[in-house]
DNA sequence: GCGACAG
DNA sequence: ATCTTGTCGC
């Protein structure tokens, strides 16, 4: 059956997660108020590399430090917006799925590149086309900004694709990537 | 066997 | 992911 959010799912906050690379890994999490998109909480954690980058096993590399950062927040966010795929993964279980299941927090995946096939969505913001892999619809290629390369949205945990799409559009009033991702990226670079 | 392969 | 200048466009 389709992943479905808890009854009455109406997130007030959304967290963006990202990992920056330097001498060590820098995991950052930024919690935004969905009404204002202001950062209301954040945390950073440094960690040594403990797993190589292996396509398909991305979560083994970046999730541990991200979970550590989440643990440093004052309050758990209502939904996690992950930097990578959720269901849109060869094994149907990308980073966003791991993050949601391990924390019990609803989650979605927003990738910058697609793993499956898709037709280019219309040029206008909000347009989308199905992202297909192995003959299955695993997510959506969503245009968050007119005339700019789409992002790839997929289900993580306890959130359906329509809800995930709405959420991403709410987080992209101006730029291609969600504000959550942008803020976490900024923080992971020490700013 | 060869190429592709989230970040 | 990260290394990096200028350049085109709103």
TrEMBL record:
GO terms for MF: deoxyribonuclease V activity; magnesium ion binding; RNA endonuclease activity producing 5'-phosphomonoesters, hydrolytic mechanism; single-stranded RNA binding
Cofactor: Mg(2+)
Compartments where located: Cytoplasm
Broad class of the protein's primary localization: cytoplasm
Any one Gene Ontology BP term: DNA repair
Reactions listed under catalytic activity: Endonucleolytic cleavage at apurinic or apyrimidinic sites to products with a 5'-phosphate
Residues engaged in binding Mg(2+): 18, 83
UniProt site positions, description: Interaction with target DNA: 53
GO CC, one annotated term: cytoplasm
Keywords for this protein: Cytoplasm, DNA damage, DNA repair, Endonuclease, Hydrolase, Magnesium, Metal-binding, Nuclease
Family the UniProt entry places it in: Belongs to the endonuclease V family.
Stated name of the protein: Endonuclease V
């Amino acid at each position: 059956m389709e992943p479905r959010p808890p009854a009455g799912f109406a997130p007030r906050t959304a967290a963006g997660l990202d990992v920056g690379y330097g001498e060590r890994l820098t995991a950052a999490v930024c919690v935004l108020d969905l009404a204002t998109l202001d950062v209301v909480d954040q945390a950073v954690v440094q960690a040594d590399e403990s797993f190589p980058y292996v396509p398909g096993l991305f979560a083994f590399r970046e999730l541990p430090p991200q979970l550590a950062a989440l643990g440093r927040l004052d309050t758990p966010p209502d939904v996690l917006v992950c930097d990578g795929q959720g269901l849109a993964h060869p094994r149907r279980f990308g980073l966003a799925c791991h993050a949601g299941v391990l924390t019990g927090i609803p989650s979605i995946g927003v990738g910058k590149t697609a793993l499956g096939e898709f037709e280019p969505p219309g040029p206008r913001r909000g347009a989308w086309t199905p992202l297909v892999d192995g003959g299955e619809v695993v997510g959506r290629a969503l245009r968050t900004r007119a005339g700019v390369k789409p992002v790839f949205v997929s289900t993580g945990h306890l959130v359906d694709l329509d809800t995930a799409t709405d959420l991403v559009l709410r987080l992209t009033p101006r730029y291609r990537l969600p504000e959550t991702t942008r803020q976490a990226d900024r923080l992971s670079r020490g700013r």
